[in-house]
Amino acid sequence: MWDSSFDETLRSFLPFLPAEEALTTETPLREYGLDSLATVELLAVLEQNYNVRFEDDALNLETFENPGRLWATLAELQPAS
After folding, report:
1. Would you say the pTM of this structure is higher than 0.70?
2. Is the dihedral of CA 64, 50, 23, 40 positive or negative?
3. Does 70 score more than 90 pLDDT?
């Protein structure tokens, strides 16, 4: 599962997700308010917070479909520790 920073960051871009509702791997991000502008902003925040760069092949609707896919993509971009 992802870290709390990812959860908090993602929630800040989902205006229609109630605070008491759990964010799951399958939560449909677009249904909860992640539009195209918010996606670009989220991308920039994630790149800065995790010190990564999303490659062109990761910049597609599927990557931002749900938290599970987005976290998996982000995890692949992070250097192995």
Report:
1. yes
2. negative
3. yes
